[in-house]
Amino acid sequence: MTEAPAGRSRCAASLIAVLIPLAALAACSHVARLGPSHWHAHWPWRHAPAPPEPPVHELLAEVPAGAASPALVQSWNRNNLRVSLTDLSGAGEFTLRPVPGHVWPIRLEFLVQPGAFAHLEIKGDERVILAVPATGAATVLPVPQGIYAPDSAIALQLHYGP
């Protein structure tokens, strides 16, 4: 008689040993994101990225007679005025000057699309030629200090092309 209860307890133990993992497996099927790559979405210190800066209108673009005026999107990147030249390609030229009532920003940078043109020449108080990469993602070209004085009334002449 002592053997029968031991056989039942082994059978019950093996049944429990099978049912517990099955129940855990069934519970896991209800978890939508189980992998470590999705854990960061629920961490309380994880914040959404900052929205992009809104467009501003700090500089006027003047083109030679008969040429189309380029659409230059301008925005602030901290204390740098970023002027997007990503819509330009080929060769051309235009002049930038501050909007009436405004002065030059302390720092200026241009966002360019690699391969659209090879060089960007900037003439102000001094002249500089910036090389545009041939491939890759959009690149920011900072304008070196000394090309223009922030308090001057001079216009920057830009020429882009090969």
Structural write-up:
16% of the residues lie in helices and 30% in strands. With 162 residues, it is an alpha+beta fold. It has two domains: 3-42; 55-161, Immunoglobulin-like. The chain is elongated, with a radius of gyration of 32 Å. The mean pLDDT is 83.
Q: H/E series, N to C?
A: HEEEEEEEEEE
Quickly count the helices.
1
What's the structural domain tally?
A: 2
Low-pLDDT segments, ≥5 res: none
Distance between the termini: 99 Å
Main β-sheet: number of strands, strand sense, barrel status? 5 strands, mixed
CATH topology label of the largest domain: Immunoglobulin-like
Name given to the CATH architecture of the largest domain: Sandwich
Helix % is 10-25%
Judged by helices, strands and strand pairing, the structural class is alpha+beta
The CATH C-level name of the largest domain is Mainly Beta
Record the SSE blueprint:
Blueprint: H1 3-28, E1 55-56, E2 59-62, E3 73-77, E4 80-84, E5 92-98, E6 107-112, E7 119-123, E8 127-131, E9 139-142, E10 156-161
Parallel strand pairs: 4-6
Antiparallel strand pairs: 1-3, 2-5, 3-4, 5-10, 6-9, 7-8, 7-10
